[in-house]
Design a protein that fits this description.
The protein is mainly beta. Helices cover 0% and strands 52% of the residues. It is built from no helices and eleven strands. A hairpin with a 4-residue loop joins β9 (91-97) and β10 (102-103).
Length: 113
Amino acid sequence: QVHLVESGGGLVQAGGSLRLSCAASGIIFSINAMGWYRQAPGKQRELVAIISRSSSTEYADSVKGRFTISRDNAKNMVYLQMNSLKPEDTAVYYCHDYVAGSWGQGTQVTVSS
């Protein structure tokens, strides 16, 4: 049994910032690569960022330099700091565990122009 819960989404103006959190349970979090994905209405779910068990990171070109993924293994948490937000960042953001293949319920991020 695995459980991922995202939080921290909301409505912000373009250029603003949000910090998303994902709380994980039911997995051995410290050995799992974790990721953030997003899906806008009518569009394909896309990768945003990945963080490995050793905290190495990869980012989609569209968010590189603006978003930062991090993890706290002691708290079973993964974060996504989003700066300089653009309207095209508007989507539901999902936490993903690559070992169990599980997804959270998603948190809505809306960026107004």
